[in-house]
Amino acid sequence: MTGNIQVILAAAVFLTTYAVIVSEKVHRTVVALAGAAVLGLTGLLTPEQGVEAVDFNTIGLLVGMMIIVGITRQTGVFEYLAIKAAKMSRGQPISILSALALVTAVLSALLDNVTTVLLIVPVTFAIAEKLRVNPLPYLIVEILTSNIGGTATLIGDPPNIMIGSATSLGFIDFIINLTPVVVVVYVITIFILRLIYREQLTTTPELRESLMGIDENSEIKDSALLKKSLTVLLMTIVGFALHQYVHLESSVIALSGASLLMLLTRDDPEHVLRFVEWPVIFFFIGLFIIVGGIEHVGIIEKLAEYSLRLTGGEVLTSGLLILWLAAVASSFVDNIPFVATMIPLIQDMGRLGAIENLNFLWWSLSLGACLGGNGTIIGASANLVVIGMAEKRGTIISFTEFLKIGFPLMVLSIIISTAYLWAWYSYSTVMVLGATLLVGLLLAAVLRLLSGR
């Protein structure tokens, strides 16, 4: 097979895979594996090259965390937290919206956003039913805050897991560099959402009292398992914080934590492995192979060269271009395949020698891809999970309805991120935080004036 034919084939498989994933006509896992199979059957990639293209650090981290969270979920602790947050809001629907948003954001940062919405959505429907309010505002808020919270840490959102695996950046690096701007984006987003939904979320005193009568302690199903699970989860998070200093991959930490918890609980492995979202794992595997195909034939390197010519190799310009490109693209294409494509592109920009320190570009990619997932209902995996769970319960979240709320808030979050990245690149850390807070306060003041409050 000649070089030109290889390039055409790899590009055709890549673009066709993207198109079918976006169309949602065929399950994305099937599409990704079919694309990978085509590359193998045509001889474009050998089996060894296909295996080499798979990022097993990402796979291991995902599997390990899925097992830990799956076992912990059996204790009922996540339902306990959601109900406790609702009761602390005194049964006020608009305050419950803020409380569930905070629980969703924090759990998304510490676990991952897909797992978090799987845990929170059923409780949300139960609370909405008790108060006889429309669950739709709560679901939209949980989608948005799951993606915002997941942006803050290495393990919070699949794009960050992939970036961390491809670089030397660790858990603490993500917290130090991304959490400040994520906090500002979160606060502004919740402020706006409260303004939007404050008139829609009302209930009666009697219904509020019925919610207050729920015993959250009854949700804890196994206290002994809860102690074991939380201990291992805490040890795993500490391990993530230290992994780059003890020179261990994040996947080793996650799989070690999962193994320890399985030893402590003595659960049947067949039962435990059901907690792993195998379609997600094989989607990643197929995707890595497809991206490996276009990297193998040199398409990624050519795109990197073009990008450098476009920006002149200037770090700030390159970073902001990546930020906005990632945000817009991730709104309309699942951010996982987009990031899988961008990672080797940025790596090639570094290999070509025009940009020595790529960290600024990695943070730009993370913010754009994770926050960009809030632009549309198909922008991130967590969004799709909530749609499916809502539909099963008779609640439909339409593309247009979500777009009206999500896309403007996504653009606002990227404007804030632009200010943050510009200040960070141009000035000191103190100036970064000051500029980010100033932008947030100014936006809050403008929105308060516009709301007439």
Features:
mainly alpha, 0% strand
Cα-to-Cα separation, first versus last residue: 68 Å
Provide the gyration radius in Å: 22 Å
Order of helices and strands: HHHHHHHHHHHHHHHHHHHHHH
Largest sheet: none
| Helix segment tally | 22
Total strand segments:
0
Counting helices, strands and paired strands, the structural category is mainly alpha
Regarding quaternary structure, how should these chains be classified? single chain
Name the helicity range.
over 70%
**Residue-averaged pLDDT, rounded?**
84
Instruction: Report the uncertain regions.
Output: none
Walk me through this protein's architecture.
With 453 residues, the protein is mainly α. It is built from 22 helices and no strands. Helix 10 (171-197) packs parallel to helix 22 (429-451). It is globular. The model has no long low-confidence stretch (mean pLDDT 84).
Topology of this structure?
Elements lengths: L2 H21 L4 H14 L5 H7 L2 H18 L3 H12 L4 H18 L2 H19 L4 H15 L7 H9 L4 H27 L7 H8 L10 H20 L7 H16 L3 H4 L5 H19 L2 H13 L3 H18 L2 H17 L7 H14 L8 H12 L6 H28 L2 H23 L2
Helix pairs in contact: 1-2, 1-15, 2-15, 3-15, 4-9, 4-12, 4-13, 5-6, 5-7, 6-7, 6-8, 6-10, 7-8, 7-20, 8-10, 8-20, 9-18, 10-21, 10-22, 12-13, 15-18, 16-18, 17-18, 17-19, 17-21, 18-19, 19-21, 21-22
